[in-house]
Amino acid sequence: MNVDYIIVGLGLAGLAFAEVLERNDKSFVVFEDDSQNSSLVAGGVYNPVILKRFTPVWDALDQLKVAIPFYKSLEEKLSVQFDYPIDIYRIFTSVEEQNNWFNACDKPFFEAYMIAEVVKNTNSHIHAPFGYGRITNTGKIDTKALLEAYRSYLVGKGQLINESFDYSLLELQNEAVSYKNFKAKQLVFCEGYGVVKNPYFKNIPLKEAKGELLTIHAPDLKFDFIVKSSIFIMPLGNDYYKIGATFNWTDKTLNPTEEAKEELLSKLDKIISVPYKVVEQSAGIRPTVKDRRPILGRHSQYKQLSILNGLGTRGVMLVPKLAKQLYSHLEENQILDTIIAIDRFEL
Ligand SMILES: Cc1cc2nc3c(=O)[nH]c(=O)nc-3n(C[C@H](O)[C@H](O)[C@H](O)COP(=O)(O)OP(=O)(O)OC[C@H]3O[C@@H](n4cnc5c(N)ncnc54)[C@H](O)[C@@H]3O)c2cc1C
After folding, report:
1. What's the average model confidence in pLDDT over 91-116?
2. Beta bridge partners of 233
3. Which residues line ligand 1 (CB under 6 A)?
4. Averaged pLDDT, 158-185
5. E strands, the chain, where?
6. Could you give the count of Cα atoms lying within 13 Å of 340 in the half-sphere of its Cβ?
7. Does the model's pTM come out above 0.90?
8. What pLDDT does residue 347 have?
């Protein structure tokens, strides 16, 4: 079977690239083996403000300009809601932080996002004596709902192959690839941290970080915004809240750990004072590149092989723009910005 593209991996990267291909009438198949789950467990938050220091996220406004309509049209196409606009309330820990907040609010970048006031805490179950800074025009993508809907969509069209891509069976031809009974002119690898098993791209300089999350049930908590402090507390509806996330740079497994659970709960107990029950724990590995920028482009030697990876901690916001950029690079010879191009590294 001849196709324009083979994609390996259906996390956010594979999904966004598949969608760009479809919008450009290109034929493709996707291989997915459920070996990684960063996109499935992600908090899914999109927010252009770095909440530690009140500084801008790199390229955030441009990314959001592409991302918001991208998800909207996917919602319409799949008839599923997964984009939930929701404000973020950053707990201030001191008067100094309040002052820093007001200073940041003066910058034009933050105009549409940071509200220049201290929001008083009215929820007696939350410990926030210095109040909150409110960020608006932010939201969360229910990445699990999105991926499940997109997966069913591709299954329905016979474009999803639920098996592991076996690199040893790949045959490289002149300006094409063959894999089992498929022949394609390009193969795009979107394996997230799974890229470490890929003989063509395993040397990309990753500094991956395992992250863990909890879901709790807390009937008395009652708020409808994301609370951000040393952790985030995100309402899911029906008195369920997602709590996250940890960072671990040594453990490469996807197993939930007692250590991460204890860390999250000890931080949570400093913020809220209501009874709750932990109902779920999940873990994933964020595919972060050493310089904290995504990585995309063709293999230096095998031009029919490309990569879309390095989404790190902010895949939701980044990937719609990146998928478009990679497509324009492959199909229209547009040059990729050095900051994201794979050839910024000598591999
Ligand atoms: C705890 C946690 C919280 C997060 N919170 C947020 C957040 O709030 N906002 C945000 O924007 N980002 C968040 N992220 C980051 C976000 O999840 C990632 O940036 C993004 O999901 C990475 O997507 P990906 O498609 O590159 O990788 P993945 O999601 O890992 O997808 C790769 C896919 O490739 C498949 N695969 C790998 N190898 C093969 C193979 N050989 N054959 C077939 N299939 C293969 C895997 O099974 C997987 O489905 C979070 C991450 C974690 C872990």
Report:
1. 95
2. 227, 243
3. 8-14, 31-36, 38-39, 41-45, 164-165, 190-194, 211, 213, 244-245, 284, 286-287, 309, 311-317
4. 97
5. 2-8, 28-31, 45-46, 49-50, 55-56, 83-85, 88-91, 132-135, 139-141, 160-161, 170-173, 176-179, 182-189, 209-217, 226-228, 232-237, 240-244, 277-286, 295-298, 305-309
6. 23
7. yes
8. 82
